[in-house]
Amino acid sequence: MLDLKSFDLPAHWASALINGDVSGLDPRDHWQLNQFTQWMVKKFGSCHAVDCSEQSNFKRWHEAARFGALACDVLEFTFDVTKRAEVTA
Q1: CA-CA 20 to 30 A from 59: which of 12, 50, 74, 89?
Q2: 71 assigned to some structural domain
């Protein structure tokens, strides 16, 4: 069974989170996204976005604010945080 978590994150992160394309991010956005990714990996063991909403909303407070992202249009991103079985040799 999948364990899914949703977060409101900057809409301009969509290409990076969904397609792995960071070419549209400036250095500050790239740093903030890296901080979020590191937090996700530490908290959930992965950072794999599987979907995002199509309609954006402007928000001051969103899950990326703790990493320095300012008020912006956000999308709701859904991540697969299902615990994976560890493979031992």
Answers
A1: 50
A2: yes
